Amino acid sequence: MKKTSILFTLMLLYISATAQVDPVIHDITRFNRPTTSQRAEISQKIGLNFIKINYGRPNVKKRKIFGGLLEYGKIWRLGADYQTVIDLQNEYVINGDTIPEGKYALYAIPNQDSWTLFFNQDTEGWGQYTYKAENNVYEFSFPVEKAPEFTETFTIGFLNASLNNAEMFVQWENSRIKIPITISDKHRKEIELNYTNALGLHEQRLGYKYYLTSEYLFLEDKNYDKALTYIQKAIDSGINAFYTHYLKGEILLAMGDKKAAVASAVEAKKKLQKGFSNPEWERKIEQAILNWDK
Description:
The protein is of the alpha+beta class and 294 residues long. The protein has 3 domains: 1-33, no CATH class; 35-183, no CATH class; 200-291, Tetratricopeptide repeat domain (Serine Threonine Protein Phosphatase 5, Tetratricopeptide repeat, Alpha Horseshoe), CATH 1.25.40. The protein has helices at 3-17, 23-26, 185-199, 206-221, 224-236, 242-254, 258-271, 279-291; strands at residues 38-46, 49-57, 85-88, 92-94, 97-99, 102-110, 114-120, 136-143, 145-159, 165-183. The strands form 2 sheets. The chain has a 6-stranded antiparallel beta sheet, with no helix packed on it. Strands 5-4-10-9 form a 4-stranded antiparallel beta sheet. Strand 4 (92-94) and strand 5 (97-99) form a beta hairpin. Helix 4 packs antiparallel against helix 5 (224-236). The longest helix is centred in the C-terminal third of the chain and has 16 residues, at 206-221. The termini are far apart.
């Protein structure tokens, strides 16, 4: 075999092994340049891990997109050029289905009132030209809503993110869909194991770990009794700061004890350091003292 043929084969093997890198850079038939539909990557941490999406971003360019360039009822690669790939770095629940950790190609069938979204196992193809329905592993339907503004460049992103939840949105032209994502039961147990293990260790900053655990239990699990126990442990461990007393007040308020909640807010005000100079926290605590007992 000629040396050039061996080199060509090795380069093809390299490209295959590094699927989902930018083809403009790594495809030996191309050269590195700006592309018509530039690639983008968006990531959002939900729970313990990140969800990452790599996709091509076409522009409207004065065209009618939905019901025009993209025919209703026809499969679309949810972007441009090679596969749009979502990388779930833990197990998540999307629209009621538990989806294992892994990479999936995203496809959609847009219609006027709703879109069908597919998670597909083939992440190495070239959009709808290599699409095979038998590789779909999950299928969802989401209503279409009017986008808050005209979107020239196709956009995927995240909205309303909290510790364990977020909404992924897909938006182009005047249309948008939103995809609710939350952690799975397995993922939740990993979080619980992490803080249980951390709190079982007699090490530095244990009090602060009690605070962080209390905050998590208050915000995400709504387990107010346990959250109150841990925030008190944080305070008793020496984290006797304005933010621990404020969180204690929030928990007590959620439990219906307004008087004790206000007392905690008053204590938080006392604990603000001299020269702390954080108007946001000062206003927040003042408003709590005024409003929590109403």
